[in-house]
Amino acid sequence: MEISSLTTFELQKRFASNKPTRAILPIGAIEQHGPFLPITTDTIIAEGVSHRIDQEFKGECFIYPSLYFANTDACKNYIGTITISHDLFRQLLTQVISNFAAHGFDDIIIVNGHGINEASINELVFAHNLGEKEKFGEYKHKAVAVHAYKYYKRMEQKFELTTGKHADWIENLLVEQILKKRGFPNKYLLYSDREAKEASDMLAVEESSVLGEFVENRSRQGVIGKSLPGRELSDKETREIFETIVSDLLSDVKNKLLIKDNISVY
Length: 266
Description:
- By secondary structure, the chain is an alpha/beta fold.
- The protein has one domain (3-258): Rossmann fold.
- It contains nine helices and six strands, in the order H-E-H-E-H-E-H-E-H-H-H-H-E-E-H.
- The chain has a four-stranded parallel beta sheet, with helices on both faces. A two-stranded antiparallel sheet has the order 5-6.
- Strand 1, helix 2 and strand 2 form a beta-alpha-beta unit.
- Helix 5 runs antiparallel to helix 9.
- It is globular.
């Protein structure tokens, strides 16, 4: 359930029961994703995954509002992008995790959709769990982290597909599936429309040093990820690809929550 709809007293009542209390924090970024995807793509993916985790636990988790702000210096010269320093991101996340622990959440599940966040999140999860062990002799308020883009391997093998990096077809597919499930209108040009769009509208790749650090192909209209997965996908395959990725992530979350003697859990 989303925390934004609850009062303090409703939360207090839940904490007074014997049910496990789990906070979920989606983390993404606000950065350009070319002419095809919204600037909150990474956050949309993190939020979609967070809701699936909550569903897996029968709607009894508490999903907090997303942490949108992160470091995205590679895209900082594209209008709309907002970037903060890695140090500020770590300070902010440290404070949020500390609040979760102070209020007594049994588990703190961090769901990340932005690759640059990974190292900082893993560092802070490790430090938090180490502190818990030293303070209580156990992981009283254990933090775990999952990074949505880390679960493509089985899907790639099963469907004989290859994923790319930023703003490519797999992010298109994930956003499409998540927005459909959340009841959003079909507002964005998604992966099935991209090939024709690129052929007619994209400018040549140029001025990478001006527009940002070189990571993938870039133009004045943004990063150009791999447009299509190499073959046409049916609607059934599209849904199965999404479910395969989510299934592996959910399994990993459950396994990490069961770990009692490892402070890493990322």
